[in-house]
UniProtKB/TrEMBL annotation:
Pfam families: SASP (PF00269). Coiled coil: none annotated. Keywords: DNA-binding. One of its GO terms (biological process) is DNA topological change. This is Small, acid-soluble spore protein, alpha/be. The lineage of its organism: Bacteria, Bacillati, Bacillota, Clostridia, Thermoanaerobacterales. Belongs to the alpha/beta-type SASP family. Transmembrane segments: none annotated. It comes from the Bacteria. SASP are bound to spore DNA. They are double-stranded DNA-binding proteins that cause DNA to change to an a-like conformation. They protect the DNA backbone from chemical and enzymatic cleavage and are thus involved in dormant spore's high resistance to UV light. InterPro entries: SASP_alpha/beta-type, SASP_alpha/beta-type_CS, SASP_sf_alpha/beta. It comes from Thermoanaerobacterium thermosaccharolyticum (strain ATCC 7956 / DSM 571 / NCIMB 9385 / NCA 3814 / NCTC 13789 / WDCM 00135 / 2032) (Clostridium thermosaccharolyticum).
Length: 61
């Protein structure tokens, strides 16, 4: 079975979230594989939160 290569988030968004959570230095020096699973989970939570906020904001226009 092949692995999915096209992610749902752009690299720019992932980097923005990593900066916000303070793990960007790890990503730049060691790559995404060195980011802890807890931090990856927090990245996903933050991405969902931002998406929900964006949906609410767009609905109000």
């Amino acid at each position: 079975m092949s692995r999915r290569r096209n992610g749902l988030m752009s690299d720019d968004l992932k980097e923005e979230l990593a900066k916000e959570l303070g793990v960007y230095d790890i990503v730049k020096t060691e790559g995404w594989g060195s980011v802890s699973s807890r931090d990856c989970g927090n990245l996903v939570k933050l991405a969902i939160k931002k998406a929900e906020e964006s949906m609410v904001q767009n609905k109000n226009f």
